[in-house]
Design brief:
Two copies of one chain form a homodimer. Chain A has two domains: 66 residues, Winged helix-like DNA-binding domain superfamily/Winged helix DNA-binding domain (Arc Repressor Mutant, subunit A), CATH 1.10.10.10; 169 residues, 2-Layer Sandwich (Beta-Lactamase), CATH 3.30.450. Chain A is built from ten helices and nine strands. In chain A, helix 6 packs across helix 8. The longest helix of chain A is centred in the middle third of the chain and has 16 residues. Chain A is elongated. At the A-B interface, helix 1, helix 3 and helix 4 of A face helix 1, helix 3, helix 4 and strand 4 of B. Chain A binds a DNA duplex through helix 3.
Amino acid sequence: MSQSLDRALTLVGELATGPKTLEELSGVIEVHKSTTMRLLRTLESHRFVQREGVHHYRLGTALFDLANRALEERDVRRSAETALRDLNARTGYTVHLASYEDGEVIYIDKYDSTHPMRMYSRIGRRAPLHCTAVAKVLLSDLPEPRRREVAKTIDYVPLTANTITTPEAYLAELDRVRSAGYAVDNAEHEDFIHCIAAPIRGARGETVAAVSMSVPKVLLDYDGLLGHLPDLLATARAASVECGWTPRD
Amino acid sequence: MSQSLDRALTLVGELATGPKTLEELSGVIEVHKSTTMRLLRTLESHRFVQREGVHHYRLGTALFDLANRALEERDVRRSAETALRDLNARTGYTVHLASYEDGEVIYIDKYDSTHPMRMYSRIGRRAPLHCTAVAKVLLSDLPEPRRREVAKTIDYVPLTANTITTPEAYLAELDRVRSAGYAVDNAEHEDFIHCIAAPIRGARGETVAAVSMSVPKVLLDYDGLLGHLPDLLATARAASVECGWTPRD
DNA sequence: TCCTCACGTTGCATATAACGCAACGGCTAT
DNA sequence: ATAGCCGTTGCGTTATATGCAACGTGAGGA
């Protein structure tokens, strides 16, 4: 492909591990120092690298700019697409993608079950906050005071025998979700369906969306559903990486 | 310098404005599409760009990685984090962290306002030197001759009625900032926003960064803004201590 | 103060690798 | 079924990236 470009990008990658001198960098890409210098000059003119002192080069400020622009550009929906489609293909169950936008939880994508079943969700629809797994995931990421405010304003309509009906119980549930890293809707929304959901994270670790898997109870009992947790969490993780999240260690 | 690298970096910059097709990109760097493709392939192999669908390219995930690594090396950011976060939580206003590098002032961190408001800043962006409080703080710490040089090269674009438009006025302002220990942007950048900023100092007393607080005028008048000065200065002081600065007596 | 060494920088000749061209292939829409 | 639009590939040519060797510069030691 393009040799000089390839070398230059290797240099940038190398600089990510810390500032380096001209000769160190020449060693990495195994070329003469004059060649390295010309590459660095070009990189410098685009602010990809910058000099630190006289002898060292380090990553430049263009990278911050680009990373932020890239993040804004990228919408969760497209980024999560493949991971979610895979999960749907693997399990055959309904997969939802939802995000939190000023006080509401919205379904922004859906991969239908291959099993025939009725589901009342639809892209663009609001999810009830007190009885869906995605809402629990998304709200559990809000700062404490904000969570209290929201919990207070929810209309706790009981939809099944399991529906949470008090702010106290709901806030306790959010705490559980937050520390567990996933949420469950144990037939709290519809009698015959239960769900699990997990957070998709962005570059700064913030929750940008939630994935959920919905399964009819006749197909899988509660333990069977929880058995899919590792798969769901792996999916959420893959989607997070696409959204700019970097796993630590 | 290096032509192909230069072209490739231009491509990356172009992609920052949104996904593009092969031919659009060829138009930008004015080469044959086969040439563009080879560059994109190399960029793709380093995860600098990635394909979106069949016809589009967009920025890749390597940029997030690199940007994070680069940011971590500037450790002012980490050191100042808690103090800045506290200020943001206490006041609810937008808090910025900026540093001076090679003649430019760069935003290196940002804590968003809890009030809904539009702000055009972004991490990694350059701040205009003549009309932002952070730039005034950072430039006022430069040695006298250097200040003169910089003041001479600034393009004094008038952005509001209050924008400083001459080198003389700007240098006088820097003197004021230097002796006062804080800077003000009294709607000099945007009509509806005013800011105050203060220096964060390192072990040798040098200014390593600047904190600022930005407030829409509709929420707080000028005197109200200045009322927050003690809080801002305390924040800057706390951050300075984290950066190795020792308060004398 | 001068010398030396280590490292970055520059000019130039050469070979290579980046380039444009043109033909091919897949996809979509009509 | 066909035309037109893009992306892709192989190839010959020349621009261009490269290595070399000489030069500059700054730091450290005698």
